[in-house]
Amino acid sequence: MSLQSSTPEALRVVNLLQERNLLPPRPIPAPTPCLPQDLQKINCNPEVFRSTLTSIPQTQSLLNKAKMPLGLLLHPFKDLSQLPVVTSSTIVRCRSCRTYINPFVSFLDQRRWKCNLCYRVNDVPEEFMYNPVSRSYGEPHKRPEVQNATIEFIAPSEYMLRPPQPAVYLFVLDVSHNAVETGYLNVFCQSLLDNINALPGDSRTKVGFITFDSTIHFYNLQEGLSQPQMLIVSDIEDIFLPTPDSLLVNLNECKELVQDLLKSLPTLFEKTMETQSALGSALQAAFKLLSPTGGRMSVFQTQLPNLGVGALQSREDPNQRASAKDIQHLSPATDFYKKLALDCSGQQVAVDLFLLSSQYCDLASLGCISRYSAGSVYYYPSYHHQHNPAQVECFQKDLKRYITRKIGFEAVMRIRCTKGLSIHTFHGNFFVRSTDLLSLPNVNPDAGFAVQMSIEENLDDMQVVSFQAALLYTSSKGERRIRVHTLCLPVVNSLSDIFAGADVQAISGLLACMAVDRSVTASLSDARDAMTNAAIDSLTSYRQSVLTIQQPGLLAPACLRLFPLFILALLKQKSFRTGTSTRLDDRVFAMCQLKYQPLAYAMLMIHPSLYRIDDLTDEGALNISERTIPQPILLQLSVEKLSREAAFLMDAGTVMYLWIGRNCNPNFLSQVLGVPSYASVWALNPANTSSFMQNMIEDRTESALSYYEFLLHLQQQISK
């Protein structure tokens, strides 16, 4: 079925060399799939679940011809303002493929429903005939499960392998001389003290602390002690765990002791001369301690581990940072951290790594501990409590969010799709337990995932296909819950319809994940070539197979007009750039983020949003809870857009920059920033202008093309 008549705008021909101001005035919404209105109205929110192609090709050969990647991007545990929750002793699922009943199944009659993934006809259980919302009987199609594409079930006992675990938090802290110098310990202890009552959990919540340098220190926090007791283990080769029950304690029963420890920790080590770091042994000890229950391990590290198991050597050559040749050492130096992460995963333990350092720490090796255990990595280069106040503030805000945000324990996620489609590669932090089951010892609301797909059998007689992600987890209150997201998309058989449904942001996000893998398994230059070729190939396919009238120029359909810009942005992004001095850990961290951030954040890291903010008006403003929120227009990332008379805000996802022009209106300076003159702006924070300028991706640099030059390069390749 051709949908062309209803989507002319997506296929409007754009000559990229002539239309230079392509950025829309507001952030781009996800394209709306061409579905009947009743289906689209209840489809899954694209912020939670979206596909690179909103019209699915009928065959793999058609997909190959379009030269665009097919995949899904997910943000499964996103904080949602509205989430229907269903408590029911029967969770209705397909008897054949185990799909959860959802808005896209069809009812043959009141007693039978047909699965939208495998087409099996199932019976409607008696209990499902009653609708708890309307309190009426005999209308199964009106139940919340069939009215909502995102829903959460409170699971009965058959969804538990063991009684739901309590919330367990273990903090593992580097207290070497280097760590004490940075001053991070004060900030950590103060943050945990401030937020300890907001730590997610219930009456069973447990906490524990381990500190380490060349030895490992445990803390007995058992009820009844007048103060915490420190136990030092100096045999790091074969760690003996003193009584585990006194080291992981019930937070509610021992809160005062925990607070005493947090108040005294920063001063405990302030005179230390210990320079060594036995991180590997500390992690092994922490793993032993958490193994019986599972839980979350939060590790704070400030240097390269240099003692005992998992010790590492510096692999960075500072002279090679800007070389245009290939970047070495993007893969781990040892499999110690990956192996330990897999052991952790098997015992439902996730490890989060906070790296606060001014020197090389080999994040390529250390990061494995989080990647395979479904943890997350936080990185603060050049962290110092006095010399780098911006990093300290960032660390404080991250910690507050980290300590208080929602968490799911002992989770698994499975993604199912309609018969004929198959999933072959996953991106994110997890361990793949079986072909389609992701093991997530912890799941958090800031984690994103992506999958690549192929079409194994022709989808000939299908109008639509569906995808379902089911996340089974234990809440911090000890409830077993299942969050289910279902997405429905049309099937098409013409290339023009495939192009019309292309989601340029999702495509760019998936290509970024694929390029990170390629950098590690092949080389950085391979990954860069693959991204450039993705733009060349898709625009060539469009030109040869979709355009009816050949015309000169670099032509793209309107829906892909930003594709070359996003590819250029990726080539200039910290992960993939060459010729600009980039620390190895900075590069590896940027790669970790691209693989792990939900699409909305990844896109801001790839192509930040730039706004002028000294002349805001009410035009197009939003009104949210009685407040007027101005909506300034998006500006191109070029120095041409800056002006000495103005002030600009750049949102780069995990960081925001404020750029103030030398002749900016003094009223703006006094009313908004609270400073009398431009000179005092520097006193606020003589910000890092160079990292702001490095985001000006449309401009030429010594080592990289301008956007216009890049377009000329693409045109040259396409017209070969």
TrEMBL record:
CDD domains: Sec24-like
Domain Sec23/Sec24 beta-sandwich: 408-492
Domain Gelsolin-like: 630-679
MF terms (GO), sorted A to Z: SNARE binding; zinc ion binding
Highest taxon of source: Eukaryota
Pfam family, one: Sec23_BS
Topology within the bilayer: Peripheral membrane protein
Main location: cytoplasm
Residue stretches making up the Sec23/Sec24 trunk domain: 164-403
Domain Sec23/Sec24 helical span(s) in chain numbering: 503-603
Gene Ontology annotations for the cellular component aspect, listed alphabetically: COPII vesicle coat; cytosol; endoplasmic reticulum exit site; endoplasmic reticulum membrane
GO biological process: COPII-coated vesicle cargo loading; intracellular protein transport
InterPro entries: ADF-H/Gelsolin-like_dom_sf (IPR029006), Beta-sandwich_Sec23_24 (IPR012990), Gelsolin-like_dom (IPR007123), Gelsolin-like_dom_sf (IPR036180), Sec23/24_helical_dom (IPR006900), Sec23/24_helical_dom_sf (IPR036175), Sec23/24_trunk_dom (IPR006896), SEC23_SEC24_subfamily (IPR050550)
Subcellular location: Cytoplasm, Cytosol; Cytoplasmic vesicle, COPII-coated vesicle membrane; Endoplasmic reticulum membrane
Keyword Disulfide bond found: no
Ranges of residues in domain Zinc finger Sec23/Sec24-type: 91-127
Keyword Zinc part of the UniProt annotation: yes
Keywords in alphabetical order: Cytoplasm, Cytoplasmic vesicle, Endoplasmic reticulum, ER-Golgi transport, Membrane, Metal-binding, Protein transport, Transport, Zinc
Family from the record: Belongs to the SEC23/SEC24 family. SEC24 subfamily.
Name of the featured protein: SEC24 homolog A, COPII coat complex component
Native organism: Dicentrarchus labrax
Higher taxonomy: Eukaryota, Metazoa, Chordata, Craniata, Vertebrata
